[in-house]
């Protein structure tokens, strides 16, 4: 069976999952099995088939499993958001369609993605500018002390979602040219290779940007995601564990300093360490994390049942939100509560399969830029999942990062579809070269 036929076959379970999910929602709400679920499933399958046709003709050799895996995550997210809020689900469905359009446009207009190397400094400058946008007076949005969003009229988006792709493109391009100089031109000190400053300077700038994000935007998760992607690309480029160790040490020192001088970060760390402590009843305190832990514990192994999670109590002025931001930050907690540990593990396994395919693309890539770009994009995607899942499970401090393709948010959908398009473009070139006669 050809790669594209395998992709086509793998899209069917995603549509069946969407159909079954909406059917479960209708049964839980009205105790009626409506044919509307079949309509939703058919529309979803039709959209995916249209994109599949584009992939079949433009990227015939691309990885056959990556798009179906992302489709499974997207359809699961649509069902969960619909179960929480129908209006938000309709908006998410619109963003899903826009994401598919942007995905298609990226594939068609950027067939030779290596042209991005020519504009690496422009892309880096634009990405840093995007990261700083949330602190611009008048358009920046502050949520629980963190500056993540930008609001222009009725439109609101998170620029960090797009900046992560630009930063990775810059790192992959820069390290392709300088990785040998970083290794051979360095000096040994106490068994550790110290790279020459003139070549390592731009990379130190990335570290500075991560610290600046922590200081100005006051979001630990975003800075961890960016810096983790930087270290992943750096390690693959140089094969030096010492560089990663130095980077982790710098990040730890910078985080400790900012913890002691930024009250917002101090409160976020304290809420993480003591979710049931004095900050539980404070505004922007640990209430959200504590409720997340309660919800996951209540789910048990098999869950309380689809649609059974208690998100609010009371009505009108007496309404109390038990699980704040259930459609964004805490959607993983809703999944764990309703589907149990087994359902949550199934979601994590889907993400792991997608990450595995991304790294497989990196191993198949022949040229250095493609290999580093695929590694960086996959690492940032994986770290984004880790940051939000780790946050709601108290592994790391809770942040406002979205769960890719599942959480509500147009910025995340659009940016991750661009990320998927780039991975498939890299896969097409790598697999075509591998199958070409020598």
SS summary, helix count: 14
Order of helices and strands: HHHHHEEEHEEHHHHHEEHHH
Task: State the end-to-end CA separation.
Answer: 23 Å
Oligomer: single chain
Which strands sit side by side, in order, in the main sheet? 1-2-3
Average residue-wise pLDDT? 85
The tally of domains stands at 1
Percent in helix: 55-70%
Radius of gyration, CA atoms, in whole angstroms:
22 Å
Indicate the proportion of strand residues. Answer: 5-15%
User: Which sheet architecture does the biggest sheet show?
Assistant: 3 strands, antiparallel
Number of strands: 7
Based on Cα principal axes, name the global outline.
globular
The class by helix and strand makeup works out as mainly alpha
What structural keywords apply?
438 residues, single chain, globular, mainly alpha
Can you offer a commentary on this structure?
This protein is mainly alpha-helical. The protein has helices spanning 3-30, 36-58, 66-84, 86-109, 120-132, 160-184, 197-217, 220-238, 241-261, 263-273, 287-299, 331-364, 368-392, 410-435, and strands at 140-143, 146-152, 155-157, 187-189, 192-194, 312-313, 320-321. It has one domain (3-271, 324-435). The strands form three sheets. The protein has a three-stranded antiparallel β-sheet, with no helix packed on it. Strands 4-5 form a two-stranded antiparallel sheet. The chain is built from 14 helices and seven strands.
């Amino acid at each position: 069976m050809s790669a594209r036929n395998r992709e086509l076959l793998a899209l069917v379970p995603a549509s069946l999952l969407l159909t079954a999910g909406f059917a479960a929602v209708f049964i839980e709400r009205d105790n009626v099995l409506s044919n509307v679920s079949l309509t939703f499933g058919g529309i979803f399958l039709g959209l995916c088939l249209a994109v599949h046709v584009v992939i079949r003709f433009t990227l015939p050799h691309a990885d056959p499993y990556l798009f179906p895996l992302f489709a499974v995550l997207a359809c699961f997210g649509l069902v969960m958001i619909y179960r929480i809020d129908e209006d938000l689900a309709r908006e998410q469905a619109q963003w899903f369609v826009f994401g598919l359009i942007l995905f298609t446009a990226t594939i068609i207009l950027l067939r030779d993605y290596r042209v991005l190397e020519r504009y690496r400094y422009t892309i880096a400058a634009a990405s840093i500018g995007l990261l700083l946008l949330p602190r611009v007076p008048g358009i920046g949005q502050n949520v629980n002390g963190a500056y993540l969003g930008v609001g222009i009229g009725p439109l609101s988006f998170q620029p960090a979602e797009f900046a992560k792709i630009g930063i990775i493109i810059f790192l992959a391009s820069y390290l392709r040219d300088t990785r040998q100089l970083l290794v051979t031109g360095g000096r040994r000190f106490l068994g550790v290779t110290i790279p020459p400053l003139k070549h390592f300077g731009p990379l130190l700038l990335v570290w500075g940007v991560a610290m600046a994000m922590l200081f100005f935007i006051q979001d630990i998760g975003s800075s961890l995601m960016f810096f983790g992607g930087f270290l992943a690309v750096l390690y693959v480029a140089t094969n030096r564990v010492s560089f990663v160790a130095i980077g982790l040490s710098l990040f730890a020192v910078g985080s400790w300093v900012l913890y002691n001088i930024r009250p917002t970060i101090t409160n976020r760390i304290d809420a993480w360490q003591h979710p049931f402590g004095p900050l539980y009843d404070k505004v922007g305190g640990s209430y959200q994390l504590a409720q997340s832990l309660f919800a996951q514990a209540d789910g048990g192994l098999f869950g309380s049942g689809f649609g059974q999670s208690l998100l609010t109590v009371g009505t009108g002025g007496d309404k109390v939100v038990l699980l704040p931001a259930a459609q964004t930050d805490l959607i993983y907690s809703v999944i764990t509560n309703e589907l149990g540990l087994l359902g949550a593990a199934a979601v994590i396994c889907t993400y792991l399969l997608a990450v595995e395919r991304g790294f497989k693309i990196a191993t198949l890539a022949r040229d250095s830029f493609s290999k580093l770009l695929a590694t960086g994009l996959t690492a940032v995607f994986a770290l984004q999942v880790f940051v939000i899942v780790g946050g709601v499970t108290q592994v790391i401090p809770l942040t406002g990062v979205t769960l890719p393709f599942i959480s509500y948010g147009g910025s995340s959908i659009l940016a991750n579809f661009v990320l998927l398009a780039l991975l498939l473009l890299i896969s097409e070139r790598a697999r075509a070269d591998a199958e070409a006669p020598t």
